Amino acid sequence: MGHVNVPEGLKEIIQQNSEKAYPQIIMEQASYPYLFHLSDIRENLIAFLPVTKQMHVLERNAGCGALTGKLLSMALHVTAVVESEEEADILRVRYENAGNLTVLVVPASDTKPETNVLYQDQAYDMILIAGEFSKFQNELSCMREHLSDNGKLYVADANRLGLKYFAGCQEEYRGGYFAGLENYDKDPERFTEDDRHGEARVYTRKEYEQILKEAGFSGIYSYYPYPDHKFPSCIYSDEYLPGRGELSDNRRNFDRDRLQLFDEKKVFDTVLAEGLFGELANSFLIEAGNRTGEQRVIYSKYSNERARQFAIRTDICKKADGEKNVRKYALYPEGREHICHMEKSYEKLSSCYADSNGKIRFCACHTKNDAAVSGFDPGVTLQDVMERAIERNQTELVKRILDDYAKRIMEYGGKHLFTPTEDFRKVFGEVHFTEETEAVDICDIDMIFANILIPAGSEMKIEEAEWTVIDYEWTFFFPVPKLFVLYRALYFAYYQIMGGKGTPLDELLAAYGISKELKEQFGRMEENFQAYLGKGSVPVRNMQRVMGTKIVPLEQLLRQDAGNVQIEEMQNVPFRVRKILYHIDRQEYQDGSVVCCGWALAKTWNGKVLPVDIKAVMPDGTVVTAELKRYPRADVADALKLRRTCDVNLNLGFDCVFIVPRETEWKLIFSLGKRSAEYDYQNK
Fold first, then answer.
1. Residue 354: what are its φ and ψ, rounded to 5°?
2. How many CA atoms lie within 13 A of 604 on its CB side?
3. What is the SS3 assignment for 330?
4. Hey, how many other C-beta atoms are within 10 angstroms of the C-beta on 122?
5. Sign of the alpha-carbon torsion through 620, 624, 630, 633
6. CB proximity list for 544: less than 8 A, separation 6 or greater
7. Do residues 171 and 147 touch, judged by C-beta distance below 8 A?
């Protein structure tokens, strides 16, 4: 999709609704153009940039204004340029109360920058081209001439060599698999004549830099928006690259179907280890202009798929002398109290855990200019240590880390029995414990392994290492069970670090004193906490399911031929299916989606074991669009003594993910031929 079309009726929707209603509108429309034009996640691309109230900004490709509102809140004046009167009308309606906006229409056919009204008198402190950069290449020299002395040009667009295109995403603007990788015009028959002359294209990092240098720009600095420049959640730079395992949010084909030829998370880890991230990042945000000695943001992370009072941005800043600090900002005025809460949390947590004698300390934090500011600690996280230990099969070290974690959580922070308060119920809901449990009065519930640093080099002396807790955003000033903190850490470790493999979760929890009854209560607490955060809406990373675009794994492609024999056999045996068995191992409501994991199989009268069809349906029989992942379950084959009757590589396991409202009833239907079995969920 090139220039994203303007949906019919968008202007009226904007006239009749506030921006707070946009997420619901996006869900109802389930259309990529609405997501592209209305999602506030688009603003993450620019919110961290050093734009001040003294600056004049030119937004060269404003479209329907997804970025314009943020620029208006940051700058003295914004000149927003669009290609059509339709877009101009939408911009004027969308920001009708903005007194610092000028909207200009410059048709795409106007290719003579010397006659362009943009470059006659005005000097700009910042010029932004977000998307479709190639359309404006012939204006670059004029842009440079009309920048102020310390002005900057920012270019955001896709990378022709982005890893997602190797993995099976279609080209950014023209579509087609591997089109950009094959450099477009090398195959002149790939596109129509109109496409070749009218559609935008993208470049490699070297190509972007060469184009900018030829236009006279110097001082080029590259940022890497991830997952891409359209809906970024993080902004990296050469001075702060991603860590191992961080790049896992890769389901972003909102506008087109894609293939999935490999695990991008694993390949990104290899790319980072080989020092190639700058060439293979999915997108760029390139700064061009005279270098200045001011403080620079080298990393920015957004946590804005929450209620507005909790939405924040976390920056790592680097001063000219090399000193780094961490700053957290509220993204909306409603969030200022949440930012101020962090300094109070530091003080109260430090006092509460004074009995640890330094074994648990908290990174110092103070509030300055509406930001929570703390120092930058260069240690390593316990999550990093665990991941490396698992990779090296150091199971004893993993156990030592878990044992030490549990000991510190339970031993320090005071000891008394938990009694729920009214404040507790507001956040975590009504829970009922059948057994007594210890509580901590000041509780950081997010003391997970990723938020705890130890000094580099102390990995093998884990019990002696001092902890530094670097993120205590979710600290509550009322009693919370200590075992809940332990539960959350073990739960996230099991799925995010251990990959859901090894010791079953119930056994892992039980080993540290968390019974099935406690697990159930803690699960309810977590659900209520997520609702408290305002996470009932579907986050952007799950919008691919809402849009209904397909992801076709390589395994499915390979099975299309090899699996024809098995499919034919399955079609010929339905009358011989004796029974269908299934088991639900895990079910939870997560970020607007149901996640249901387990196994299912069919047994035939002649002793064969076959996989079954799985679909999610509503009570009225409507089939729900679901993401279904299938995989072998050797443990099931062993437990049911099936090795003689089936291939252990048969895909009996499944992860089924689909979007339904939290309180909705639904069921899974497992079927083969005329036989079926149902798992009926009634939200009890």
1. -60, -25
2. 19
3. strand
4. 13
5. negative
6. 251, 252, 253, 254, 551
7. no
Nearest C-alpha neighbor of 374 from the set 350, 355, 392, 351: 350
Measured from the Cβ of residue 458, the count of other Cβ atoms closer than 10 Å reads: 15
Give the pTM: 0.84
Where in 141-238 does DSSP place strands (E)? 147-158, 221-226, 234-237
> DSSP state, 610?
E
Say if residue 113 is preceded by a cis peptide, omega within 30 of 0.
no
The two domains 10-292 and 562-681 share their CATH topology (first three levels equal): no
From the list 43, 68, 48, the residue with the least C-alpha distance to 57 is: 68
Q: 508-547: string of b/e by CB count within 10 Å (b at 16+)?
A: bbeebebeeebbebbbebbbbbbbebebebbbbbbbbbbb
Pairing of strands 551-553, 480-481: unpaired
Helix (H), strand (E), coil (C) string for 21-60: HHHHHHHHHCCHHHHHHHCHHHHHHCCCCCCCCCCEEEEC
Residue 225 DSSP label: E
Q: What pLDDT score does 238 carry?
A: 96
What is the length of the chain?
A: 684
Q: Tokens for 233?
A: 């959640």
What residues have CB less than 8 Å from 21, skipping those under 6 apart? Answer: none
Q: Fill in the amino acid letter for 489.
A: A
Other Cβ atoms less than 10 A from the Cβ of 342: the count is: 21
Give CA–CA dist 340/345, Å, rounded.
9
| CA of residue 596 relative to chain centroid, distance | 20
| Cβ pair 151, 126 in contact under 8 A | yes
Please state whether beta strands 593-604 and 577-590 pair in parallel, antiparallel, or not at all (unpaired).
antiparallel
The CA distance from 389 to 418, in Å, is 35
What is the C-alpha separation between 346 and 326, in angstroms, rounded?
Answer: 14
Superfamily of domain 562-681: Immunoglobulins (2.60.40.10)
> What's the pLDDT score for residue 224?
98
- Taking the mean position of all CA atoms in its chain, how far away is CA 318? 25
Query: Rounded to 10 degrees, what is the CA torsion of 526, 530, 533, 537?
Result: 180
Q: Which residues pair with 299 in a beta bridge?
A: 316
Across residues 54-80, what is the average pLDDT?
96
3-state secondary structure of 426: helix
Q: Give yes or no for a contact between 100 and 71, defined as CB atoms under 8 angstroms apart.
A: no
77 pLDDT band (50/70/90 cuts)?
very high
Q: Compute CA distances 639 → 33, 501, 599, whole Å.
A: 49, 17, 12
Longest dimension (CA), the chain: 85
The contacts of residue 313 (CB under 8 Å, 6+ apart) are 44, 47, 48, 300, 301, 302, 303, 304, 328, 329, 331
Tokens standing for residue 361: 């300390």
Cα–Cα distance for residue pair 630/636, rounded to 1 Å: 14
Q: What is the pLDDT of residue 637?
A: 81
427: closest CA among 274, 534, 355, 499?
A: 534
Higher pLDDT, 499 or 433: 433
The two tokens of residue 444 are 């950081």
Count of Cβ atoms closer than 10 Å to residue 427 Cβ: 17
Domain residue ranges in the chain: 10-292, 380-532, 562-681
Q: What is the DSSP letter of 622?
A: P
Sign (positive or negative) of CA dihedral 132, 133, 135, 136? positive
Centre a 10 Å sphere on the Cβ of residue 24 and count the other Cβ atoms it contains.
11
pLDDT at 192 over 70: no
By the 8 A CB rule, do 497 and 382 touch?
no
Give pLDDT, residue 1.
42
pLDDT tens-place string over residues 423-471: 999 999 998 888 889 999 999 999 999 999 999 999 889 999 999 999 9
The correct answer on CATH 3.40.1390.10 for the domain covering 10-292 is no
